[in-house]
Structures are given as structure tokens and as C-alpha cells.
Amino acid sequence: MAQDHFHVESLEAFLDDLADAGFHPVPDSSRTRWTGPIHPAFAGLTTTTTMDVVIVPGWPFQPPAVFVQGLSSSHYTLNGLVCMWQDGDFSRQWTSLDGLFSRIEEWCEDARGGWADDSLEHDAYLNFQPKDGLVATIDVVGIGVHEGSWGEFAGLVNRNPFRVDVLPGRKRSANQLRGLWFHAGVLTTPPPRNLSEVSSCLQRSPRKGLQRALAERKRPEALLASGGVDLIVFCWKRRDRTNLLVMACRELNEEVEAIALQPGPTDEKSLLVRAGPDASALRDRSAVIFGAGALGGYAATTLAQSGIGSLRIVDGDVLLPENVVRHVAGHDKVGAPKVKAVQEIIANHAPWTEVTIFQEAPRTPGRIHELATGVDIAVDTTGSEALTYSLAMVAQDSGVPVVSGALYRGGGVARVQRQARPTDTPILQRGDLDRYPPIPPGDGTDEFAEQNLGCSAPANNAPPFAVQSCAALIAQVAIDALTERFDFDDEVIEVYRAVGGPPFDQLGRIAQLIK
Fold first, then answer.
1. Any residues with CB less than 8 A from the CB of 350 and at least 6 apart, and which?
2. Which residues pair with 186 in a beta bridge?
3. Among the four 17, 191, 378, 418, which has the fewest Cβ within 10 Å?
4. In angstroms, rounded to a whole number, what is the distance separating the alpha carbons of residues 174 and 134?
């Protein structure tokens, strides 16, 4: 057992305490499964008198599993597992027997209270038996689900990658699956853990509809006539949220069995949960971003993923194979305009963002003004001093906030400038060398990977980590301005590699010396 754990001494101490509490190892379990008297906190939740504690590999970083039979609760599976810790829990409360028992008491108290402060949408999949890791993508609103009713949808198996896509409307072709959705309304019991419990959660009419479809599935001639059911989506309401189970049907011993699939909600609300705390504030905000290269591609994608409602992307170049090393787009986009490549990446990652593209390199004040009009912020990622100054001048006249970011000295230094509020010094007027220290000049050898001649642009030598760090900083400063927090100074400099004397000889962010 020692090779399965990281700290055998503390495990042995825990097992000694477990033995003192009346537990003994189950025969032939190699001391990994122990049975003993049930904790008093389970009184009233089950009639069983014993509980098992199973030591799983990875002690002390993995908690032991507790098994109790006869419970009816969420955070509990049909095989008796009491789910007491989330995966990755860092509390290590379980490393003492007192800590384990304390968590059991907390769990039982929550179970008696109906888990009032807990979201249970994941329990339905975790507790269902049997289940499969296959993902089923679904937009509940899109397929027409509404409370207290039931209806049909279609399913399609996607082979690469392997998943099931839930589609609106009825099955229309032989390569589609027939699905039925059911909305049980407010569910006061734990989510169903098998097909029979799904049926018992339904009212009379939808329950009969499900039973009829299951019976038809056993008749091959009915399947040919689009009878039966291949997929089931069971929905219920809890605290103003629609939760769901997605199940696939199969025949087992002349009966129909349901297998829970891993739900993959695709509705905007579900996707935006991981967009961060500013997503709701950014939904009605807009930006124009000049430059869709290495910096611009990542900055634009990050802004979109953070929840911004609309983006204009401006760049005149096409994507080349060598660009892909540092670009957000891959080799499958080579030959496409950079703006188009970034637009498609955003559509894949943040479909809520409306993207308008302009394949051009504006130079005149009039055109820059047109592109920057009607947005909440203009973002410059071109690294072109001419464009930066031109945009800053146009924006100063029109009042449009500006954030401009660039890398220097071969990616050794990132600088992000903001011109967005009355106290920000206009970018064209930053002559105070103490407050706005100039980037130390180099000899050119660290700036470029190769020194192209003539009209071709040289290849900047900034490493990918510097590009992504600078792009993230640009997006962060832009979001800070869009939300009007203004936690950042009007100029932020980060040093990724020492490039000269103070303050550029220390890694990290350079604080402004004068406020």
C-alpha cells in the first residue's frame, strides 16, 4: 500500500484512530476498505447501522471515500458513496478522524436542510447509473424546452470529435436520432439516478409518453417509422435555474436502459459563467481593435471571451505560416486575412460577440475617425508609432478612450498606454521622463530574428510568452477602462527580461514614480 500514497506515516496514524473508533478492515481488501459503526449524524437519514471508509490512492491529497447504504439525498450515489469533498479540495480536512467526522456532520446537516445553499446541476450526471463520459451539446431554450411540458428534438452523432449534438425539431433523416425532452417543473426530490426514477418524476401525460416511446423502441418496425426514443433530456427547475440530464437509450437483456451523457450546455448564459466577473458589464460595450497580428489576435480574443458585446477588427495583412508560431490562429487559417482568421477564432470561443472586420491599414485622420466612431474604446496593438500617434490625436479630438500596447527590445519590455479620462496625460504629451520612462534603445540585434532589407518588414523576435503576456495586459487595461474602475495608471510597463539600467533592470511591473 505504501507505493500508492505520499505520506504513509500519517495514513497509519489515521487507520489506528479508525480502529480505535470500532472499524476493522474488510477481508481481502488489503486494509483499503474499513467497516464500522455508522456515525450518529446519519440518524434519521438511513436505517443502516454500519458505514464503510475506503482509502483511495494518493493519501493525504485524496480524501477517503465514505459509503453508507439507504440514503436518499443529493451528493449521494446509488452505490452508497457519500460525496463530501469536491475534486481538488485543498482543505485536507480528512487527514484526521475528527476532521472526517466533522465533515460527515456538516454533510448530514446540509442533507436535512435540502442543500438550500448548493447548486445541484452536476449531481444529476455524477449520481446517475450508468453513465458515460461522452459529451452531449445542448441548448435547452433552442430545442423548445418549457416548464411542465414535453416534446421532441433530434440528435446527431458527431464523429470527430466524438460527441452527440442535440438539435431543435423532429428527427428528419435516418442518420439522426429521435429524442424526447421532459420538464418536470420544480423538483423537490434529488435528481433521478436511473431511468425508473426519471419516469417517477413525471406527471401522468409525459410519463405515459415516455413509457410508450420506450416500449416502441423494442419493436424494430417502430424504429423504422421514427417511433421509439434514442435520447432523453430530463429538465427541472431549482432556484430559477433549469437543470438537466441527457440520457442515451440502449437495449439490455430485452429491456431499455438509459445511460447519462455528460451535458454540454451551449446557451449564452451557461457559456458566460466562465467569462469572468465583468461579463455582464461588458455585454453592451464595444471596441475597435487596430491590428490582428500576434498581439491583436490574442487581445481581441481575450476581450471577446471576457464578454464584450461587439468588436471591430482592423488589419490589412494575411496570415502566413510563420505568423502561426505566435498567432492565436493555426495553420488551417494560413492564407486568410488576419481579420477573418481572428473573427473565426472568436466565433468558436465567444459566439456572443458580434465581430465586424475591416481588411485595411488606415492612415488618414478621416478613416481612423470613421473606424473609431461609435465604439466605447479604441485599442491599438499594431506596434506602429505612426498609427499610435495618429489614433491618439484623432481620439483626443473625438473623446474616444484609447488603449495602446506594444512590445520592445525583442519582447523584453511591454508598454500599455491609456488615454481615457481627464487625468490621463495625452499620449502625444508624455514628455515627463520620470513619470513615463523611455524604453532603453538596443542595438537592434535583440529586436529582430532577421533583418529584412527593402520594403519588407523584419521579423520581430519577441517570444510567444511575451506576446501573450502583453496581449493579456492590453485586454486587462481595456476592460479596466470599459468598466470605469481605472485601477491601472495611464501607463503600465512590464519587464520580462532586463534590458538596461533602472528601472528596466528588474523583472516585473514598473510603478509610476509620480502620480
1. 271, 275, 301, 304, 305, 307
2. 237
3. 17
4. 21
Per-10-residue mean pLDDT of the chain, 515 residues long, equals 88 97 96 97 95 96 96 84 88 96 96 68 78 95 94 96 96 94 89 92 94 84 63 88 92 89 93 94 98 97 98 97 96 97 97 97 96 97 94 94 96 97 95 91 64 51 94 98 97 95 94 55
Residue with cell 461609435: 374
Which runs of E-coded beta strand occur in 332-411? Answer: 354-358, 377-380, 402-408
Which three cell numbers mark 433? 521622463
- Whether the Cβ atoms of residue 198 and residue 247 lie closer than 8 Å to each other: yes
Using the CB atoms, write b or e for 46-63: b if 16+ within 10 Å: beeeebbbebeeebeebb
Residues 6+ apart with CB under 8 A from 35: 23, 24, 26, 50, 51, 52, 53
Question: Rounded to 5, what percent of the chain is helix, strand, coil?
Answer: 30, 25, 45
**Of 148, 135, 260, the residue nearest 194 (C-alpha):** 260
DSSP 184: E
Q: Are 287 and 303 within 8 A, CB to CB?
A: yes
